[in-house]
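To whoever is on call:

I kicked off a structure prediction for a single chain this morning and the downstream step that reads the tokens threw a length-mismatch warning. I double-checked the sequence; it's 148 residues and nothing unusual in it as far as I can see. Pasting both halves so you can look.
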Amino acid sequence: MDATDQTVLERQIRISARPEVVFSFFTDPVKLIRWKGVRAELDPRPGGVYRVEINGRDIVLGKYVEIVPFTRVVFTWGWEGENSPLPPGSTTVEITLTPDGEGTLVRLRHLGLPPEQREAHAEGWDHFLPRLNLAAAGMELGPDPWSM
């Protein structure tokens, strides 16, 4: 896929934790809700469910596609609900973890986003990735302002 493809959203962040730690924040429901969402049902194996209740009304639903411990997590993504502009599993999120000294370089690619969904998802990832950095570094964040 061409890097200029408008259906691809890319973000990169350096996390102050090793890949083994960061990986668990994408596969362990207790850790995931420390940085994103209020409830999570995760079955981190190919075909396993990826379901995250973001705020009591918006629920992400997809399936894990690929799990490479401490290196890569791929899952499908969409929103539950009738008339969703982005149906469950209709896009794909790729997470790549690369060791960087005592930290981890996290590269996120959200593929298949319709142009009208790009801005909202960019805003979402820009909100949640800094929270991931703090949570993976061991900080207690308290409730996400978006979940209230």
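Update from on-call: the warning came from a stale cache, not from the record. Cleared it. Sanity check on the structure: The longest helix spans residues 115-136.
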